[in-house]
Amino acid sequence: MKPTIGRVVLFHPSEGEIHAAIIAFVHSDTMVNLAAFDANGVAYSRTSVTLVQPGQAAPEFSPYCEWMPYQVGQARKVLDLPVVQASPAAG
Question: CA-CA distance, 85 to 34, in Å (whole number)?
Fold first, then answer.
């Protein structure tokens, strides 16, 4: 999935913690800057965070972010849609 500014992701600042975050800048498909929110809703930022793509293993000892399950499900639905051929016009 291609990251874009403004998309929401789940940020894992440490093992067992999950914070809501918004992509603020995209370095690459696997590296982003985040505006994140702690459990109290207090905003903070993190730069150069690894974005784990579906099917990839998460880093063991460093912060990372990932797509929300709903987003992954929606992307799979879009990718699984059959290609519809246009009907020839009656003439």
Answer: 41
**Helical spans, DSSP H, in the chain:** 69-80
Structure tokens at 7: 């998309």
Residue 91 lies in a domain: no
Our count of domains for the chain comes to 1
Q: What was the pLDDT predicted at 19?
A: 98
Cα of 80 vs its chain's centroid, Å: 19
**What is the pTM assigned to this prediction?**
0.81
DSSP, collapsed to helix, strand or coil, labels residue 47 as strand
**Domain membership of residue 33 as a residue range:** 8-76
CB atoms within 10 A of CB 77: 9
pLDDT band with cut points at 50, 70 and 90 for residue 71? confident
